[in-house]
Design brief:
mainly alpha
């Protein structure tokens, strides 16, 4: 029960990341995987599954009006169930996509009424120039109406659904589970393709190929490429020229 409660807390914090912490990326499977693994008593498996799900959902981010499947709480639940059942990456991959779609619908359903009410109250507070009230509503009603339903679902699934989930998993043929393990590697390529698709413009894409050259032909590790990329970013920003606009008195 304590494990289920702690996993639910991780799912809650992951769910409210974008609304409260400004999408700091601490809710991604790569970060939550080791934490869930620590709670469930198997950090190594948590890291492996978290990295696999991160590669799978690498390009799944909210851009404009495009709303992707729910990645955060669904990944937490997938990792917890996979460790709990002892079946590894194949189970996590098998559960991640359907859970992410279901959790997105569940979250939207629970968020509809309080979110609509909060939106109207925030708009009213802004019109009244009551910024403190607007910020309070934005930082309480909005994230709580998203985080609590996700955390509650994860808690119930981990605390009471282990035996049922294990029964279902044991009924799945071995060949199907092997197929899911193979799909984990294929979906990693899909996640990378989604990321490249978003980066496919003449200004950004050369940096991607530069990183590819560093890894493949120069044999640099990830840390070396990251440091080199940071240096290039500093140089690019320092050389940027901005048009000065004369300030007007209002």
């Amino acid at each position: 029960m304590i494990q289920a409660l702690l996993v639910a807390v991780v799912a809650f914090l992951a769910s409210i990341d974008e609304q409260t912490f400004g999408a700091c990326m601490m809710s991604r499977p790569l970060f939550t995987g080791p934490i869930v693994g620590l709670i469930m008593g198997d950090v190594t498996t948590g890291i492996i599954i978290g990295a696999s799900l991160e590669a799978m959902f690498m390009g799944s981010i909210m851009v404009g009006s495009a709303v992707p499947p729910e990645v955060y709480a669904s990944s937490v639940l997938s990792i917890a169930v996979a460790i709990q059942s002892g079946t590894g990456v194949g189970t996590a991959v098998a559960l991640a996509l359907p859970l992410s779609i279901f959790l997105q619908m569940w979250r939207k359903f629970c968020y509809a009424i309080p979110g609509s009410w909060a939106g109207k109250q925030i708009e009213k507070a802004v019109n009244e120039r009551n910024i403190k009230k607007a910020n309070l509503l934005h930082l309480t009603v909005v994230p709580l109406s998203i985080g609590i339903p996700s955390a509650l679902l994860v808690f119930v699934a981990v605390a009471f659904g282990a035996d049922t989930i294990n029964t279902v998993l044991n009924a799945i043929p071995t060949v199907v589970m092997d197929g899911f393990n193979v799909a984990a590697g294929v979906l990693s390529c899909v996640g990378l393709a989604l990321l490249i698709k978003m980066m496919s413009n003449s200004k950004v894409l050369p940096y991607l190929f530069l990183g590819f050259i560093c890894v493949i032909y120069l044999g640099m590790d990830v840390i070396g490429v990251a440091v080199a990329g940071l240096c290039i970013a500093f140089i690019a920003v320092s050389n940027m020229k901005f048009d000065t606009v004369e300030e007007e008195d209002f």
